[in-house]
Amino acid sequence: xxxxxxxxxxxxxxxxxxxxxxxxxxxxxxxxxxxxxxxxxxxxxxxxxxxxxxxxxxxxxxxxxxxxxxxxxxxxxxxxxxxxxxxxxxxxxxxxxxxxxxxxxxxxxxxxxxxxxxxxxxxxxxxxxxxxxxxxxxxxxxxxxxxxxxxxxxxxxxxxxxxxxxxxxxxxxxxxx
Length: 177
Fold this sequence. Notes:
Layout: H1 15-79, H2 84-111, H3 117-131, H4 155-162, H5 168-176
């Protein structure tokens, strides 16, 4: 970009040159702003990918830790003097109780769901407005013609008006016999 403090030659430039210079500087400014936006988006995407990867790895590690912690809990209960089978049964039942509580919590949250009332009302209002709209008038088609009646018809138009209307099925049936 040019230096705004350099006004030595600005008195000698014409209006067209000044407009061209201003346009060029605005174009450069827009290009710089776009480049800055691209750099910021690229940096945010990189952060998002890094954060997502960390969350995925955390989820995998947490999933793998469940059996290990289950065995640790069962052996911990066993070390208190209970038989090993009963220890594993207690841990399994604890998981079933936790799953049941989560099921009840989830079901309660799902029962609180409501339909999107504002969207439904808006759709009904739009449908009511559209039902009141009449289509554009179309030219009337007289019986026995395949085109609308035209006031100043030509010889070919007259022949078309007098030709009987045939549907596709009847013309195919005649050609096949």
